[in-house]
Amino acid sequence: xxxxxxxxxxxxxxxxxxxxxxxxxxxxxxxxxxxxxxxxxxxxxxxxxxxxxxxxxxxxxxxxxxxxxxxxxxxxxxxxxxxxxxxxxxxxxxxxxxxxxxxxxxxxxxxxxxxxxxxxxxxxxxxxxxxxxxxxxxxxxxxxxxxxxxxxxxxxxxxxxxxxxxxxxxxxxxxxxxxxxxxxxxxxxxxxxxxxxxxxxxxxxxxxxxxxxxxxxxxxxxxxxxxxxxxxxxxxxxxxx
Length: 241
Prior knowledge:
Shape: globular
Strand content: 5-15%
Oligomer: single chain
CATH topology of the largest domain: UDP-n-acetylglucosamine1-carboxyvinyl-transferase, Chain
Number of domains: 2
Helix content: 40-55%
Radius of gyration: 21 Å
Structural class: alpha/beta
Largest sheet: 4 strands, mixed
C-alpha cells in the first residue's frame, strides 16, 4: 500500500490541475460569449476562479462541485467588470487601459436594467462601489447599484448630481445611474476615503476648476495620488485655504 500512496497522490494532483486548466478555458468561453470581448484582465479573473475551485475542494472534496462553483464565481466577476463598458489588458506586470473604451452599459436579458450588487470576496467588492458609480455616469445606459453592506455608501451621490450626473437615490442602499452625463466643475468636501477618490475621478472628467476639501480622507487610502495622477497628465494642485 505504501507503494501506491505516491501514485494516488500524483493522480489526484493531476486531476486537480486538469480541472483548473479546463476551468480557465471554459471561463474564457463563457465570458467571450457574454461580452464578445476577451483579454488578459479577464484571464486573471478566471485564475481567481481557479483558486476558488481549490478552496471549495478543500471544504468539499468533490471536483465536480468545486468546478461548478468556481465557474459561477468566475462568470459573475468577469461580467461585472465588463458591464460598464470598460476593458483593459495585462502586459506582463502592467495593466494597460486603452483609450478607445466603448463605455456602454450591457443590459440584462430582454433589455432589462442591469444590477451591480456587492458581495464578499471574490465577487464585486463594496470598496469599488463609489468608483463604479462614477464610471457609470460616463457610460451610455442605465444601471442599478446595490450596496447592502453599508447604508451610507450612496450618500455622496448628491455631490455627483451637483456636478451634472443623472442619479436617483432609491434608498440608502440603492441608486440608479443614467449616463452619459456631462460634468461641471464644483466645490465639494470629501466625506470618506472611497467617496473622496470617486469625486476626484469625477472632477478629472469635468472641464474647468474643481475644489475638493478634506483631502486627508483621500490621503489615508491613496498615498500621493495627486503625484500619480499628474504623471498621467492630470492638472492637480494642493492648496491651503
